[in-house]
Design goal:
With 340 residues, this protein is of the alpha/beta class. The protein has helices at residues 46-68, 87-104, 113-119, 164-174, 181-189, 214-227, 237-265, 281-293, 310-322; strands spanning 6-11, 16-23, 26-34, 77-83, 108-112, 132-137, 142-149, 152-158, 270-274, 297-299.
């Protein structure tokens, strides 16, 4: 009987310490330790994040092994995120993974964080067919990528300023909402009127697949200053709900329009959407609806695979392991790693 291929995936690019075990293409454990304390500061504090990774990475890895009911000696390789991300956080994961694998005398495999998000849709039973269009939307990234075949990419659009998740967080801060901003804005938008306020959309012209979200964030600020000069001391709940709903609708409109336009231009049927913002309820519903109307297949991973997680790292590591790929000892953390 052929030996099962078992991969440990480690994710530590930002404020989640995560480890997962993939065995013959199936995730059998996925542990995520989220650093909840960052909400006190309104955003991730890099130094505190790296210290938390140092504290939790060993217990998280041990728990992943325990739940998978295997030992470290059963592993065939260790996959880890080496960028993009926060340098201190990345260094913890990279150095731990390299020495962990070195001690076991097994290969270690560096994984691009964006690449891992792209392939997170492959963790589901229904998978996109090549070539497919990938939309990556998170706190640090907003990109439209054509995936022609395994590990062959063409970036056709990206944000020119703030990432979409960053815009959600900044608008939430203007409204005195808690961090992270995406989930709370999504929740409050349900009770708001999304047509009550008109916010601008950047790059509206046809054929331009780049994004910009700093303008709408600034428009929210100007709206507050003009209509509610004392907004820092609190706003009526109805007003907050309406701003959340109008802001979210404008952002989702822009993302959906550009993605569907790109799919049409490049004659692509399958669209994969991933990253933390893919958990947004309005965005998911809009894509499923418009995809059906335009005969496009929409693939969005389950909530557990939308945010940063070890499963998506193990998944890419497994695919690279099967292709014979392994990283050299000199591989390092790269905070602004570009998807090749």
């Amino acid at each position: 009987m052929n030996k099962q291929i078992t991969i440990l995936g480690i994710e530590s690019s930002c404020d989640e310490t995560s480890a997962a075990i993939m065995q013959d293409g199936k995730i059998i454990s996925n542990i995520v330790s989220s650093q909840q304390f960052h909400f006190r500061y309104g955003g991730v504090v890099p130094e505190l994040a790296s210290r938390a990774h140092q504290k939790y990475i060993i217990p998280v890895v041990n728990q992943a092994l325990e739940i998978a009911k295997i030992s470290a000696t059963d592993l065939d390789a260790v996959a880890f995120t080496n960028g993009p991300g926060l340098m201190g956080s990345l260094l913890v994961g990279v150095n731990f993974s390299k020495f962990y694998a070195f001690g076991l005398q097994i290969p270690y495999i560096a994984v691009n964080h964006i690449e891992a998000h792209i392939y997170s849709t492959f963790l589901e039973d229904e998978k996109p067919n090549f070539p497919f269009l990938a939309l990556i939307i998170s706190g640090g990234h907003t990109q439209l990528i054509i995936v022609n075949s395994d590990f062959k990419y063409e970036i056709i659009g990206e944000t020119k300023d703030d990432a979409v998740g960053e815009a959600f967080d900044k608008v939430a801060k203007l409204l005195n909402l808690t961090y992270p901003g995406g989930p709370i804005i999504d929740k409050l938008a349900v009770s708001g009127d999304n047509k009550s306020i008109s916010f601008p959309t950047a790059f509206p012209q046809e054929g331009n697949f780049n994004f910009s979200f700093s303008g709408i964030k600034t428009s929210v600020l100007y709206y507050l200053k003009e209509n509610y000069p004392d907004y820092k001391n609190g706003l009526p709940q109805e007003t907050v709900n309406n701003i959340c709903a109008s802001f979210q609708k404008t952002v989702v409109d822009s993302i959906v329009k550009k993605t569907m336009s790109a799919a049409k231009k490049y004659d692509i049927t399958d669209i994969a959407i991933a990253g933390g913002v893919s958990a947004n309820s309005e965005l998911r519903n809009r894509f499923y609806t418009i995809g059906k109307e335009n005969e496009k297949n929409i693939f969005i991973p389950k909530m557990a695979y939308c945010t940063d997680n070890g499963a998506m790292i193990a998944n890419v590591g497994y695919r690279k392991y099967l292709s014979g790929f392994k990283s050299s000892l000199t591989v390092s953390a790269v905070p602004d790693l570009i998807l090749a």
